[in-house]
Predict the 3D structure of the following.
Amino acid sequence: MPEYNITSVYKNGKKIAKAADKKYVGVYHTHNDESYFTPDGTDSVYGEGGIHDVGAALVENLKKLDISVNYDTSLHLPHNSGAYTRSQVTAKKLIDSGVAAIFDIHRDSTPRREYFTTVNGENMSKVRMVVGSSNQNFEANKKFAYSIKSYADKAYPGLIKDIYMGGGNYNQQLTGFAMLFEFGCENIEKDLAIKSTEYIAKTIDVVLFGSDRASAISLQDISLGNSTQNVIAGLSNTDSGASLSSLWVLLGLIGIIAGGIGIACIFSKTMRYKVARFFSELFAGMFGKKRANNI
């Protein structure tokens, strides 16, 4: 049994607790069409693809851990550059319902060998996390992703494939607790992706809500040691937002830099070309069109 040690967050001798007592999360699909060749027979359908079976399995595993789930199966078809704009409406509804975090469930597109893994002697699919870098919640969601990976790497080695830093928003501009999970790829068996939802659910339970609120089912896979301080605080119990003053400093610096570039562009054709090319590459894929091996 792996040991996982994190000291809780305390202030004046008392643990900071800001989250509601209820464990409550939201789950949805931006790309509803995504499917698995085995057994779906295709990698995409115009409607509810095999990815919905994976989403439903995650929801059931979360509920087994006493986590309430708002599972929105709204369709955001077609699978094109406007899908994230459409799913943003769904994501916002979930957030407005009071969830602690939202999870967008996808599958990747890559060879099977990239995702096949064995955890605790069981065959399953690896899971990739995707974090959008083009929004104000990048640091908070990156922290969320690294916390999930850090815990899973100790409790369930081999489960998390990696963390992909994408150029888009992926609806993560709405909250600092938004994660996009890629459960395998079209070439891996769907039942292996479904199997990994059990371990992702347990990881979410402990990382998001802390060892004092996590289900005994989740905690049975780790050892917290004997110290009363040796507990996992849970990210939903702490403030993940950046300070307002830091934000204004950052915006000020961006304004100065942008102004300098703008002046240079007025007097230099070469600079105009370089700036145009830079922004073209920066915003490539910004609007959520899925690319091979990434998102």
